[in-house]
Design goal:
GO terms for molecular function: ATP binding; ATP hydrolysis activity. This is Mitochondrial ATPase. The protein is built from 19 helices and twelve strands. The strands form two sheets. A six-stranded mixed beta sheet has the order 1-3-4-5-2-6. It has a six-stranded mixed beta sheet with strand order 7-12-11-10-9-8, sandwiched between helices. Strand 4, helix 8 and strand 5 form a beta-alpha-beta unit.
Length: 478
């Protein structure tokens, strides 16, 4: 595994490099590609202030499975796995995917060669070679210490010692042996403070398609989508001049990249050329709703400005009649202490969904933790196990995976919520489940592209159909 020491005293970043190549005509100015480079710059800026924690190797004894008699194993379940803790200051890495010719290698070069001076060691390796090296190390560990050992955690600590930034070229999974260990390997690397940056030909959802025991690989896909910022390098074509941003509509945590994420989507959905961003007011039943920033058919709010005030369904419906897209920044996690905020936010989500509008969010926590903290999820899971409505710990991959499933599985949501104290009745629990499900749907490419005249969606005819649907919704909600 190739690791090099690196110093960049001039703090030359990816955007500087990109601008120079455009000026010297090595590259042609491309707004979509510039958006990708801005994401690289965002991570570069976060890394300037980042110092990875000292790697602490686990002892061999701590990696061995607890011995248990046959009789004991018949009557006792395995204790739940401890949740892997990631350093609170760990910058969110990048997962860049695109077809051949989308510039993956050039962009990775640009990022890797301009890492800031405090990143004193870095590793870049082809993913296939990386996995071969990992399997050799695992084999050597098991030959020396036996097979009843979680060798992945030990190998991850070895790798983490050699660099705080790990760059993979051509991330893929075609082998069942890789699929079985990837989630725990990547999570262990990040727990030691390693920032991951990777390129791939495929979106995480398309990795290991039709592979043996693919269901066991789903937790790894969820980890990639939650812990890395997924960027689409392929420039999509639509009827407007501005290419769509490279990342999805939801972003966490509230890091430096969150600002550029919100601004780019606001520009995409707005109309800066004909209607520059401005503050305005909307009247509802004789009182004013302040819109801090509007452009064209898009409105942008901080969470406190929209949900923190005494607003309700009538306010949200009026906003839906005037705007087709909403950017809401700084959405917090809402536990039982913020129950009123959670109810109000769910009402807003329902209004956006029913009006077929677009929604962009920057959040402090992953989407699946918006309404329940990890501790509350633990309590709800334990209650569900005792009631028989939720599987036991050894039958699923962990709390986070159950919560991710909730966004697509209303039944699982209801089972979880029956054992949660966050909402007081079945009606509220159903509203919560529905909100997660709707957020998941509104984050899909199909929802975002609907009504924009995208060529692969039917172009102008599809755009007109969507406008007629919006118009009918406005009439029905009068």
């Amino acid at each position: 595994m190739a690791t090099v020491s690196h110093s960049n005293p001039d703090m030359w970043g990816p955007l500087n490099e990109y601008d120079e190549r455009v000026q010297t005509r090595q590259l042609r100015e491309d707004e979509h590609q510039r958006g990708i480079v801005q994401s690289l710059q965002d991570l570069h800026d976060m890394l300037k202030d980042y110092h990875a924690p000292k790697v602490v190797h686990p002892s061999i004894e701590s990696l061995k499975s607890p011995s248990r008699s046959l009789l004991g194993s018949l009557f006792h379940r395995q204790p739940p796995k401890k949740r892997t803790q990631l350093p609170p200051n760990l910058p969110k890495g990048l997962y860049m995917f695109g077809d051949v010719g989308s510039g993956k290698t050039m962009l990775m070069d640009m990022f890797y060669d301009t890492l800031p001076h405090n990143i004193t060691s870095k590793t870049r390796i082809h993913f296939h070679n990386f996995m071969q090296d990992v399997h050799k190390r695992l084999h050597a560990m098991k030959m020396e210490h036996g097979t009843d050992l979680d060798a992945v955690r030990y190998v991850a600590a070895d790798i983490a010692e050699k660099g705080s930034v790990l760059c993979f070229d051509e991330f893929q999974c075609t082998d069942v042996a890789d699929a079985m260990i990837l989630r725990s390997l990547l999570e262990a690397l990040m727990s030691h403070g390693v920032v991951l940056v990777t390129t791939s030909n495929r979106h995480p959802n398309d990795l290991y398609k039709n592979g043996i025991q693919r269901e066991s690989f789903i937790p790894c896909i969820n980890l990639l989508k939650t812990s890395l910022r997924v960027l689409n390098l392929d420039s999509t074509t639509d009827y407007r001049k501005i290419p769509r941003p490279p990342s999805g509509v939801y972003h966490h945590p509230m890091d430096k990249a969150a600002i550029s994420h919100a601004d780019r989507w606001f520009r995409f959905f707005g109309d800066f050329e004909n209607d520059p961003p401005h503050a305005t007011t909307q009247q509802v039943w004789g009182r004013n709703i302040q819109i801090p920033k509007a452009s064209g058919s898009a409105a942008m709010f901080k969470f406190d400005e929209l949900i923190g005030r005494a607003t309700g369904a009538a306010d949200y419906l009026e906003l839906m009649r005037s705007y087709h897209a909403f950017v809401v920044t700084g959405v917090p996690g809402m536990t039982h202490r913020e129950r009123d905020l959670a109810r109000r936010f769910i009402t807003f989500i329902d209004a956006v969904y029913e009006s077929r509008a677009k929604l962009v969010l920057t959040t402090t926590v992953p989407l699946f933790q918006l309404f329940m903290s990890p501790d509350e999820v633990d309590d709800a899971l334990e209650g569900g196990r005792k009631a028989g409505s939720v599987k036991h710990a050894e039958e699923h991959e962990g709390v986070d995976d159950v919560m991710r499933q909730m966004m697509d599985d209303l039944g699982m949501s209801m089972n979880m919520l029956k054992n949660s104290s966050l909402f007081s009745g079945d009606e509220e629990r159903f509203a919560f489940s529905r909100a997660l499900s709707r957020l998941s749907l509104m984050g899909s490419q199909e929802w975002v592209e609907q009504g924009l005249g995208m060529e692969d969606r039917g172009g102008l005819d599809e755009k007109l159909d969507w406008q007629r649907l919006r118009s009918r919704w406005r009439e029905d909600s009068m």
